[in-house]
Amino acid sequence: MNNGTSILESPIEFLKGVGPMRGELLRTELGIATFEDLLYHFPYRYFDRSQITKIAAVNGLTEFAQFAGILINIGEEGDGRKKRLTATLYDDTRRIELVWFQNINWVKKSITEGERYIVFGKVAHYGGYYNISHPEIEAWNSDTNIPGRQPVYSTTEKLRLRGITNRSFAKITQSLFEKVKPHDIPEILPSAILSQYQLCNRYSAIRWLHYPDTEHHEEMARYRMKWEELFISQILIGRLRLQHTIQRGWIFDKVGGAFNTFFNHHLPFQLTGAQKRVLKEIRQDTATGRQMNRLLQGDVGSGKTIVALMSMLLALDNGFQACIMAPTEILATQHFNSISGLLEEMGITIKLLTGNIKGKERKAILAGLADGSLSFVAGTHALIEDPVIFKNLGLAVIDEQHRFGVGQRAKLWKKNELPPHVLVMTATPIPRTLAMTLYGDLEVSVIDELPPGRQEIKTVHRRDTARAKVMEFMRHEIDKGRQAYIVYPLIEESEKLDYESLMQGYEQVKMWFSEDRYRTAMVHGRMEAELKERNMARFVKGEANILVATTVIEVGVNVPNASVMLLESAERFGLSQMHQLRGRVGRGAEQSYCILMTGSKVGEESVKRINIMVSTTDGFKIAEEDLAMRGPGDMYGTKQSGVLKFKLADIVHDSAILEETRHAALALLTADPRLELPQHQGLKTTLRNHASQSHWAKIS
Ligand code: ADP
Ligand code: MG
User: Fold this and answer.
1) Atom 4 (ligand 1): residue with closest C-alpha?
2) How many A from CA of 426 to the centre of ligand 2?
3) Would you say the CB of residue 407 lies under 6 angstroms from ligand 1?
4) What is the spatial distance between Cα 387 and Cα 362, in angstroms, rounded to a whole number?
5) Which one of 338, 396, 632, 653 has the fewest beta carbons within 10 angstroms of its own beta carbon?
6) Where is the Helicase C-terminal domain (predicted)?
7) Alpha-carbon span 682 to 189, nearest angstrom
């Protein structure tokens, strides 16, 4: 075991070929401070350097290649910043040009005309001439050993400029393996797992990842390290889940006045079967004396709000406070509005707490939550900030959870003596693989039934050239009494161009829909909150026929009378985003439409996204496609959460390994929940190190 004296902790500058200056560079540029850091800086590809190509064999398809020949015509061209060094390599078949723009003096000193060299690099071609800029070049004599597969490491411009080229990087990692021996990299997986899943040992895996002697070994190494990464995440999640099952929680054993009064007298519609089933699951969970950790998945419009509210009423009936938390101000406000509306006749108060609520009002809310006189609160992450103290928080509903990190979820725990029950709601269906890594610790409920009377939304793709027809269609819908959204992409609220195109769009809409007959409202992120709210309210109340908006309306807005969703420059929207927006219509009984407008030239990926939207309304399918197209990094704000930071594994492509590790983790934890067996000690140490570096620590 490495208990503090391991060679892996040696500072990187002590490695042969590094030294203080390069050491400092590696530390600041790549965060490589120790031998161990370098060990885990895996190459991202390999060059096959076992072959020497004849220069005459180069053609337009040649990418990286290695040549051997005599260097002639070394010379400098240009001056000042445009100065460059050129040379020609000549083998017995043809010539190829070599060029350097940087480190010229240094290179010049290290090459000699008429000598033999091995040259390796990326071949570029300009009008029939081939050249290589900044090649790796090495004297070629009888004891030059030609490497086989050469690792290629990610590096930075600055490192390259300071002479840490890929070749020298490879030399450094080579000297690393002269120092680091098998016993320095002990196995952490139990041998039973190694043999059951046919994994190679840890030392070999790491070594082979840097220096695979065969392709087969490279594959084995990669597989092993991916397996380990995913396995560790599954063990962490598994332990969390285990902890939930033993974590004591408040007991909600009464279904009392508030719940029943609401159910019998104030419910605006009949619950769907799915809503009833989920409520029952929540009631069962909260009555056990253990903490509930439940994920509620339901597509947009499936009716999650009412389930949240009724769960909150359940908390109230049992003498507890409840909160509902959303990722944005708009969504928090929307929840606040719809819940206060539903509660109005019952005389129960809910307050809104966001970063914008300040002064006296804020003080009063905080006081109410602390002394228990306020039972319900809706808000943004302001709710989990430190000054907010609840007297007895029994239930926390978290909407659109994917934007909250696992760590933030854990913060709720600190709010009282026992943790509150947690209901996480998400409108974005989560692909199974992602759910397994992000929410593997939660029980899952699904609302898989839409409220009755909904018709499938018709989705079409239209080009700008058909704008007149589209506007005609929209007018027809509006004349029937419907309302319409027109949404512009806005990546950053500060994007000037986006803002301008929104403004132009708004002017255009007012031309198509003359002000004497039609009312148009606009909302965007640059507006004062008050004006934004007023305009939004005009649309919600039906006073405006058209809402021109940016993606600020993406989540939350609920206007059942709206039947048209027009997305401008639809090629710029992501799949999940389009799905969310489309979910704003089709909420009433009317046939609804989603129109995806694009210019005539649209990229391949965008066409693919648009076609998926046209072909299905199934949120799960769309989420899977989105995950496959974009990868998990960008989705669901997981980048910041740190949960999915795998070095090698990728949950889309490695879903089979993920399943396998989940299985293995479950089996291991069932047999040894506290990791007490001697064969699990290596794993336990790893987990401890892992946890101290990430959000996970806050949970366990
Ligand atoms: P989401 O799951 O997207 O949060 P909401 O809770 O906002 O969905 O519900 C969408 C719309 O459907 C709302 O107008 C809501 O009042 C309505 N709704 C919810 N449940 C039912 C139901 N069982 N019957 C009829 N309408 C319902
Ligand atoms: Mg909702």
Assistant:
1) 304
2) 8
3) no
4) 11
5) 653
6) 452-628
7) 7
Residues whose CB is less than 8 angstroms from the CB of residue 270 and which lie 6 or more positions away in sequence, other chains included: none
Cα gap 514→509, rounded to integer Å: 8
DSSP-derived secondary structure for 625-682: HHHHHH-TTTGGGHHHH-TT--SS--TTTTHHHHHHHHHHHHHHHHH-TT--SGGGHH
Can you give the three-state secondary structure of 211-228, one letter per residue? CCCCHHHHHHHHHHHHHH
Domains within the chain, CATH numbers bracketed: 51-146 (2.40.50.140), 257-447 (3.40.50.300), 458-616 (3.40.50.300)
Closest alpha carbon to 558 in 485, 616, 490, 622: 485
Q: Is 546 in the pocket of ligand 1 (CB under 6 A)?
A: no
Task: Quick: pLDDT tens for 259-311.
Answer: 999 999 999 999 999 999 999 999 999 999 988 989 898 887 889 999 999 99
Q: What is residue 651's predicted lDDT score, i.e. its pLDDT?
A: 77
| Ligand 1: residue whose CA is nearest its atom 16 | 303
**pLDDT by residue (tens digit) across 35-73?**
999 999 999 888 877 788 999 999 888 888 899 999 999
pTM beyond 0.70: no
Name residues of the chain where pLDDT drops below 70.
Answer: 1-5, 142-147, 386, 401-416, 491-495, 552-556, 631-645, 691-700
CA angle 139, 143, 147 (to 5 degrees): 75
Whether residue 298 has its Cβ less than 6 Å from ligand 1: yes
User: In what helix (H) or strand (E) does residue 119 lie, and over which residues does it extend?
Assistant: strand 116-126
149 C-beta closer than 6 A to ligand 1? no
Closest-CA residue to 659 (of 206, 243, 293, 233): 233
Closest C-alpha among 337, 215, 200, 340 to residue 266: 340
Q: For residues 658 and 230, is the Cβ–Cβ distance under 8 A?
A: yes
Show the 3-state SS of 132-164: EECCEEEECCCCCCCCCEEEECCCCHHHHHCCC
CA-nearest residue for atom 18, ligand 1, is 303
